[in-house]
Write a structure and sequence with these properties.
Distance between the termini: 23 Å
Mean pLDDT: 96
Number of strands: 12
Bound molecules: 3-isopropylmalic acid, manganese (II) ion
Number of helices: 13
Shape: globular
CATH class of the largest domain: Alpha Beta
Length: 355
């Protein structure tokens, strides 16, 4: 198969972890007789420096022309510490999501048997956790009207959702649930927010099309609590943009490190794959970034964009093996144990794949 993949390394540790994912993907391509054509393009602070726009049109065209997008991270402290900055790297990410129509963000949380003791939660609580958040990604408070009034002394951000936006996300949730354990949880704040009441109403209407799916409705504050009490009681969860942002960060540490969880964003154009973690600027140049979340994102890409399940499985297999053998970056090493650099972990996976 010929795979044309847009490669957006972005900022911070983005280029480091992307390099490893490319290495692994190229070995997979060799092994399974595919040809990957990588199409690099600029995003984030790097794009601001080069052309003054964190998601330039040229990059958008590269993404549209590709079959899938592999993305690293976005963000730079230079902008975080400057509240008056007019252009920010993060705006590039939001613009990219919107322009590529990536309305559903698929964020799994699963545990690795070899890492159960790395979790901040007790082993017996997290064992068997395997859940997926579907976070709405192109609507809500992230994209609503915002501004200042009263001479700048009052600020507002608004959360708006249309039935169509909710429906298309919820349908993805029902479809996913049908392929898993047929359990779907709609996370909202319907006791307070009108937009949440529309979410609930819309999901309730869809229930009749999926009679086999058992749907529960839970308030976001309760989910935040139960997620750390009984994460393994959840399967597929659907929620709006901001709730999803917060809950998926919370969920991502259940596995033991934020550097482990991959994600996919799907929608009207082609899909984008990226690690859940951010640009981790403190780690730039130190070779300590964990590449596994990005490598597992590449596995999701093979599976979801190309239906290449064996290829995805091969990546997951070597990732598991490397964890079992302790060939891990510092974030996963046991106290006093040897750990490996970002590229050493990548090289080790390559070696396992070639065996
Ligand atoms: C994420 C990030 C982004 C978000 C930021 C960088 C804009 O936190 O992908 O979760 O809030 O969506
Ligand atoms: Mn986030």
């Amino acid at each position: 198969m010929d795979l044309k993949i847009a490669l957006l390394a972005g900022d911070g540790i983005g280029p480091d972890v992307i390099e490893q994912a490319v290495k692994i993907s190229n070995v997979i391509a060799d092994k399974f007789n595919h040809i990957i054509e990588w199409k690099p393009a600029l995003t984030g602070a790097a794009a601001i420096d080069a052309v003054g726009d964190p998601y330039p049109d040229e990059t958008h065209q590269v993404c549209l022309a590709a079959d899938a997008v592999l993305f690293g991270a976005i963000g730079h402290p230079r902008f975080d510490n400057d509240p008056s900055a007019k252009v920010r790297p993060e705006q590039g990410l939001l613009k990219m999501r919107k322009k590529l129509g990536l309305f559903a963000n698929v964020r799994p949380t699963f545990t690795f048997p070899s890492l159960l003791d790395k979790s901040p939660l007790k082993k017996e609580r997290i064992e068997g956790t395997d859940l997926i958040f579907l976070r709405e990604l192109t609507g809500g408070i992230y994209f609503g009207e915002r501004g200042r009034k009263h001479n700048g002394n009052t600020a507002f951000d608004t959360c708006t959702y249309s039935r169509i936006e909710i429906e298309r996300l919820a349908i993805k949730g029902f479809e996913l649930a049908m392929n898993r354990s047929k359990k779907l949880c709609c996370v909202d704040k319907a006791n307070v927010l009108e937009s949440s009441r529309l979410w609930r109403e819309t999901v309730q209407e869809l229930e009749k099309d999926y009679p086999e799916v058992e749907v529960s409705y839970e308030f976001v504050d309760a989910v935040a609590m139960r997620l750390v009490q009984w994460p393994n009681s959840y399967d597929v969860l659907i929620t709006e943009n901001l709730f999803g942002d917060i809950l998926t960060d919370e969920a991502s540490v259940i596995s033991g490190s934020m550097g482990l969880m991959p994600s996919a964003s799907i929608g009207t154009e082609n899909a984008l794959y990226e690690p859940i973690h951010g640009s981790f600027p403190q780690a730039v140049g130190l070779g300590i970034a964990n590449p596994l979340a990005t490598i597992l994102s590449a596995a999701m890409m093979f599976e979801m964009s190309f239906g290449l399940n064996e290829e995805g499985a091969a990546i997951r297999r070597v990732v598991n093996e490397s964890l079992l053998e302790g060939k891990v970056t510092e974030d996963l090493a046991k106290k006093g144990d040897k750990f490996y650099s970002t590229s050493e972990v990548g090289d080790y996976l390559v070696k396992l794949l070639k065996e």
